[in-house]
Amino acid sequence: MAASLVALDKIVSLAKRRGFVFQSSDIYGGLNGCWDYGPLGVELLRNVKEAWWREMTYRDDIEGIDASILMHPRVWEASGHIGSFADPMIDNKTSKKRYRADHLIEDEIDRLRNKEKEAEADALQERLDKAVAPEDFYQIIVDSGIKDPAGGTNDWTEVRQFNLMFKTFIGPVEDSSAVVYLRPETAQGIFVNFNNVNQSSRQKVPFGIAQIGKAFRNEINTKNFLFRTREFEQMEMQWFVKPGDDDKWYDYWLEKRQNWFQEFGISPDKLRVKPHAEDKLAHYAKAAVDIEYLFPFGWGEVEGIHNRTDFDLRQHAEFSGKKIEYFDQGENVRYTPYVIETSIGASRSTMMFLVNAYDEDEIGGEKRDVLRFHPKLAPYKVAIFPLIKKEGMPEFAQKLHQDVQKQYKSFYDESGAIGRRYRRQDEAGTPYCVTIDGQTLEDGTVTVRDRDTTEQIRIQAESLRGWLGERV
Ligand code: GAP
Fold first, then answer.
1. What is the mean pLDDT of residues 238-249?
2. Residue 200 Cα, ligand 1 centroid: separation in angstroms?
């Protein structure tokens, strides 16, 4: 565990050093739970989103939308977020520190497992799985003698439910009639647009609506880099089906989504599927699983697949007074569709791809950090170097770089020894480095070095764009 956490520290520091991710408002000491994507990070994030968008919407039966972040406040009454989108919170009276009660218990379970007290850990896990009300969490914390990780005392307040939605006001008057919320999930923007999309696209059930966008949650504690933040991006798809067909489609999407992770280089032994216990299901769900990745700090959810039944559409129909139904012309029936949801964090999965890509190895006796991104996710697809800064090599390299850059993100570098230039690109995760040398000027060929094998081949410079096209 400790060694893996060192790995996470290394990744966070590489992410900062190379311009993937910075703490938000860094020069002011940072803002907790918020992160900024730097020049390499923004490319990675965009490529992750692009990979998802292509997979989900470049097919005939899924439409994309982009709904606004601020929505009518009644949306959140209907969805149940105002009533029940809350986490159990506890304060320590001495240290004045605030914790998520369930996380304190999870940490205690980890501690027990580290001491190989498996039976005690299992018993505590069983109690945690059954805990629903604030009193349940409080009793477990007291019974287990859990102490404040910061101050070491156990003088706890009661457990209270804390609503995670950020509140703000629309217009100049800050009164209760002007309250709006920053959306805590993108899904509701899809539900409230069901009629609009259904009527304008003339899709037939089953069909889906997909969206990528920011979501905000006032998490009690943020932790583990991009894993749990207060501002993040989600990639969600709601698949509308005829009631009764929902179980079949739930299985279909669970399998399809797992394949997507593997297609982009996540090995099956770092992925697992964890069903939600029946008594822990969200208020809207008939069935739910998490797709989890093995992060340096342990298993963590990256995507949720949920059978949300007809809960959301029915709620919005009731609260808005509008009919939200599907009319099946073939069968001449009208019904409220069931919904299978696939919901993945763009930011959290970007962190997963970064962690997954990180590797250390040795080339000719020299250590290197390398990010083994899938070529489609890599920030730069190619880097182009003149071997030396004379004999027309820089001019040739610049011209090739400008030509390639019309289609693929390319990086031009002429400074330092060629080995150092390779190392810099290995750290950025660039899959191919192209060098212009003496032979290029004679026969128009260039060397292409592979990031992972470090092997080099020669190809015609003019065929580089096509060659890359087959790979990235
Ligand atoms: N519409 C369903 C929904 O929002 P969720 O399990 O609460 O379900 C879905 O969130 C995904 O959003 C998670 O699997 C995770 O990838 C991402 N996510 C949720 N909260 C997050 C946070 N505080 N920071 C980063 N990502 C988060």
1. 97
2. 29
